[in-house]
Amino acid sequence: MPQFSRTDTDAPLTKSVVAIDASGQPQERQIACERPLTLYLNWQPIVTLMTLGARPEKLALGYLKNQGFISDIDKVESVIVDWDVNSAAVITSESTDGLKEKLSEKTVTSGCGQGSVFGSFMAGLDEIQLPVPAIRQSTIYGLLKNLGEYNETYKNAGAVHGCGVCRNAEILSFVEDIGRHNAVDTLAGELFLGRQNGDDLIFYTTGRLTSEMVIKVAKMGIPVLVSRSGITEMGLELAQKMGITLVSRAKGRHFLVYNGADTIDFDEVQA
């Protein structure tokens, strides 16, 4: 684990409020918190994310890495999260030449609440070499069953997406956020911080598999992507190009494989 100045300041994820039910009676309920977090790189503002506030340090690192603004964890000197001013500042000795030009090339995405990616986001995709995975149908079923123990904020308050990094049917890390891209960036930051290789991992998300989601998982080096939701045409095309096994509509004992069916051992086929 790199040694640098860190804060690790999580924010409250839910808040108790009173709602009136259909019979006119008050009910105490939990709602998901939502707060802005402005990311700075060497004190230059990059973007403001609307987030739940879980693991903000890792969200900042993962976002900046996925966007191509940083690439060397050993050159990160500090990550400072301050909820009094809703900011996360990443200080690095890595060169940030050309940052202004990268920030000027912005694309509005299909992310929750309309996200943005910058000109450097697509860089290096042709250089990504993902391993050919080997996954059992029974492993997918086991994974989906184990995921039922997570989604704590969703169960209490709804209004959030969840993402998990898994090895076989074991969930190594799970995070929820207002937008699915915040959740995937947080897990990307966690792997980046721990210098973990994604070769033998599975990525799970409750959100739809858009081009941006597929690209982020590929940048994490993870060859298997499983979603409870559907996929888009561009998401499928990119998965085919980069060799990602794409499993969609996965819930209970049902799933659809849109790419990489030959990497799955259908060992629990039912009549």
Automatic annotation (TrEMBL):
Q: Name one GO molecular function term.
A: sulfurtransferase activity
A Pfam match is FdhD-NarQ
State the InterPro entries in the record: Cytidine_deaminase-like, FdhD
One annotated GO biological process: Mo-molybdopterin cofactor biosynthetic process
Q: Which residues form the active site?
A: C112 (cysteine persulfide intermediate)
Keyword field contains Cytoplasm: yes
Q: Highest taxon of the source? A: Bacteria
Q: Where is the protein localized? A: Cytoplasm
Keywords from the named record: Cytoplasm, Molybdenum cofactor biosynthesis
Q: Which GO terms describe its cellular component?
A: cytoplasm
Stated role: Required for formate dehydrogenase (FDH) activity. Acts as a sulfur carrier protein that transfers sulfur from IscS to the molybdenum cofactor prior to its insertion into FDH.
Q: Which family does it belong to?
A: Belongs to the FdhD family.
The name this protein goes by in its record: Sulfur carrier protein FdhD
What organism does the record attribute this protein to? Ferrimonas sediminum
Q: Its gene?
A: fdhD
